[in-house]
Specification:
Layout lengths: L1 H9 L26 H15 L3 E5 L13 E4 L2 E5 L13 E9 L3 E9 L1 H7 L3 E4 L4 E4 L3 E3 L1
Length: about 150
């Protein structure tokens, strides 16, 4: 909710009627459910711009048993990591990109505070772009590839 308030103050997301961008911290914050799809996309783009170094590709490894829940594994620039046990994305099984706030090491390396992000926001706010015309690829920082 603090991030929403900051994004509103910066003018990236319009404030709802009855709420000024310079609201007191004690003012009633906007509920996450009241954000439009466009507002959520802007928030994720802002997060990508600020936390781009903490991005990873989801390695989808579905189980043969439909009822078995497989933990989500993510490939980061430093190697593979698992989504933290307490995360809502713990059993995420999709192709895509995940942004994380921190990496912790217990018996394995875990990612905390994760969210799915768009490849477009990575291209707009990410690292060095290299276009490989012959191979029809775009690479970001030499390890993220888009066809």
């Amino acid at each position: 909710q603090e991030l929403i308030r900051m994004v509103e103050q910066a003018g990236f997301v319009a404030s709802k009627p009855g709420r000024t961008p310079r609201s007191r911290p004690s003012a009633e914050p906007k509920a996450l459910g009241s954000l439009s799809k466009q507002d959520v996309s802007v928030l994720k783009a802002v997060l990508t711009a600020g936390l781009y170094d903490s991005v990873g590709r989801i390695l989808c490894t579905p189980s043969l048993d439909i009822q078995e829940r497989v933990a989500c594994v993510v490939e980061t620039a430093q190697g593979k990591a698992h989504v933290h046990l307490s995360s809502v994305n713990r059993y995420l099984q999709t192709h895509g990109w995940l942004l994380f706030q921190e990496k912790v090491k217990y018996t394995k390396v875990f990612l905390r505070d994760t969210t799915l992000i768009s490849p477009l926001s990575m291209l707009l706010f990410g690292g060095d772009i290299d276009v490989q015309h012959r191979d029809r690829l775009i690479s970001l920082d030499g390890w993220i590839y888009f066809q």
